[in-house]
Amino acid sequence: xxxxxxxxxxxxxxxxxxxxxxxxxxxxxxxxxxxxxxxxxxxxxxxxxxxxxxxxxxxxxxxxxxxxxxxxxxxxxxxxxxxxxxxxxxxxxxxxxxxxxxxxxxxxxxxxxxxxxxxxxxxxxxxxxxxxxxxxxxxxxxxxxxxxxxxxxxxxxxxxxxxxxxxxxxxxxxxxxxxxxxxxxxxxxxxxxxxxxxxxxxxxxxxxxxxxxxxxxxxxxxxxxxxxxxxxxxxxxxxxxxxxxxxxxxxxxxxxxxxxxxxxxxxxxxxxxxxxxxxxxxxxxxxxxxxxxxxxxxxxxxxxxxxxxxxxxxxxxxxxxxxxxxxxxxxxxxxxxxxxxxxxxxxxxxxxxxxxxxxxxxxxxxxxxxxxxxxxxxxxxxxxxxxxxxxxxxxxxxxxxxxxxxxxxxxxxxxxxxxxxxxxxxxxxxxxxx
Length: 434
Known about the structure:
By secondary structure, this protein is α+β, with helices and mostly antiparallel strands. The protein folds into two domains: 20-238, CATH 3.30.830.10; 251-430, CATH 3.30.830.10. The chain contains 16 helices and 13 strands. The protein has helices at residues 2-11, 64-71, 81-90, 114-129, 135-152, 156-169, 182-187, 190-200, 216-227, 278-290, 296-303, 335-352, 356-368, 377-389, 396-406, 409-419; strands spanning 23-26, 32-37, 43-50, 75-76, 79-80, 94-99, 104-111, 207-212, 251-255, 261-269, 311-316, 323-331, 426-430. The strands form three sheets. It has a six-stranded mixed beta sheet, with helices on both faces. Strands 9-13-10-12-11 form a five-stranded mixed beta sheet, with helices on both faces. Helix 2 packs across helix 8 (190-200) and helix 12 (335-352) packs across helix 16 (409-419). It is globular, with a radius of gyration of 23 Å.
């Protein structure tokens, strides 16, 4: 979720970008392609995403989605992980990936020269279409994941995130831990990974993003190369995630922990990626807690009372209802005071909205910061992938400035009243007490 908060903050943090000509088409096999032709650098960046995140995995197989994505590059098409790594290194290519509740993806950066590009793309095609999921590699990766899960139980920030996620989402798929649980991971077999791969890594669910020093014809050939032999898939590839149920009452959970500071998370289910109130919520949240020293939470928590060094809030829109979250760290003996200040600040904000001065400052900062958000092909690749996966319009960036500028104080107040309910907040405290 934090990853999605950071990425989506970047994505909607700025003004129009009319100079970004996004080309889009759909292959005969159903894969969607988004391409920006850029010859400034002799590089090519590619990503391929699938609706194969945590929410897609069976409830009894926690961790299968994460391990399936992780093992794509650890054995494929007759090559073991060392051979793949050496081959990529020989041509200067860099493999990466991303994973969350909604999607799983692989990224590749390579030189755009035909020889190097050809080797790197052939390797990527093998990983996507011929993964082998070796038993020995799976056993090693399971041990690594299990060790990390056990270590997380000793870290208060991880305990807070886990408890908050469970309290907000309950039995909904978004309530699952991305890495799975110790017991569920221990049970997984290569057969489970192969089944998940066959069902969720299908061409009709794939989103391919490309930016770099190639032509449209090259991009078409690459997209076909990367998806030609993907599995047939199943209906699971259609991104069917159930709606997130609203909370019916406030929930408070206090987890004792031997530390001098308390970890505090407060929030509730937020909004979907397609919610028409998103821009009003985003601009309003800049005033509430997303604008750093411009925000009310920082003013009330840090400036006026010295209760914490930092405090924040954000919306993380997802395919279904992403989270609305506020958070801070404070001394154990100040915990209850800090929690009450956050609740009071939110209640006042929802009831009274923003001033015209606050609104103007928020708009100026959100629009003015955009040029720093698209200063690399890698960042633009992320935007292309988000546009494609969430079916956003191709002119999303071009219309951003106008949509932010059009937000009114009345719209912010109405949107927050519709979506944020101070009487039904989840509050998680790790380290504090009554």
